[in-house]
Amino acid sequence: MTDAQPPAPDEAPSASEELPRAGFLYYFVRWGIAPLARLIYRPHIEGRQNIPRTGPVILASNHLSFIDSFVIPTFAPRPVYYLAKSSYFDGTGVIGWLSRQFFTALGATPVQRGAGQAAMDALEQQKRLLESDRAIALYPEGTRSLDGRLYKGRTGVAFLALQTGAKVVPVGLAGTNEAMPVGAKWPKMRPRVTIRFGEPLDLSHHGTASSGKARRLATDEIMSAIHALSGQELANAYNEAPAQNPVERIRQALPHERR
């Protein structure tokens, strides 16, 4: 058996061919399930007109529940792509196949959780989507807030906005953590969920993506806009998992940029 050879240059897949696209299931959910969800859950939606219909857009939202990643794309006026844990795509058997097809059809991009290279790979995936004039949804806090407070933003969203020139639409969600608390298998019928889309932010006045100060100031502007929409109590800290060893405790204690 001979070693496989890399494809010739003209046979290599282009970046656009590798990007996820909203499939049939996405539009079925939008036009079939979304009206039913509106009828049952009666979501309160504000500011849909603030989302540009074309061009690169980042929807930067607070994060309270697993269903946030379904609520935002379902009620946004254009297809929205988002990151999903790679474990949703790695399963085996029929269940694994169904999970993979479901999240892919909804425009999800698999990503390995963690810092370092995993974080950089996630940023690169989102950058390519923005450069193709897509809309993406990201959570500057990094992960769900388990206590309902709004945590400090990490600078990855600002980095993408400054690097690509994408507008940032702040999003404030309320009630999703009560509709589907952590550990719940299915959303509850109540309470009423609120989704607020704020006015687009142009962050270019802060400077370039290579400037740490620009990234921090842009991130703070994004989080201030999210806070104005969500009305959450501010945590004034990063939402980080408890350190598992002395090295992680030292890393979290030292000043460093959270992507």
Structure, briefly:
The protein starts with 14 loop residues before the first helix and ends in a 6-residue tail after the last helix. Helix content is 38%, strand content 13%.
Structure description:
The chain has 259 residues and is an alpha/beta fold. The chain has a domain at 56-182 and 192-230. Helix content is 38%, strand content 13%. It contains 9 helices and 7 strands. It has helices at residues 15-18, 24-41, 68-75, 93-105, 117-131, 156-164, 176-179, 212-230, 246-253, and strands at residues 44-46, 57-61, 80-85, 108-111, 135-138, 167-174, 194-197. A 7-stranded mixed sheet has the order 1-7-6-2-5-3-4, with helices on both faces. Helix 4 links the parallel strand 3 and strand 4. Helix 5 (117-131) packs parallel to helix 6 (156-164) and helix 6 crosses helix 8. It is globular, with a radius of gyration of 19 Å.
Distance between the termini: 44 Å
Number of helices: 9
How would you sum up the major sheet?
Answer: 7 strands, mixed
**Overall shape:** globular
Instruction: Give the DSSP E fraction (strand runs of 2 or more residues).
Output: 5-15%
The beta-strand count equals 7
What is the string of SSEs from the N terminus onward? HHEEHEHEHEHEHEHH
Helicity level, as a percent range?
25-40%
Radius of gyration: 19 Å
Residue-averaged pLDDT, rounded? 82
Decide which structural class fits the backbone: alpha/beta
Strand sequence of the main sheet, in spatial order?
1-7-6-2-5-3-4
Task: Give the uncertain stretches in residue-range form.
Answer: 1-17
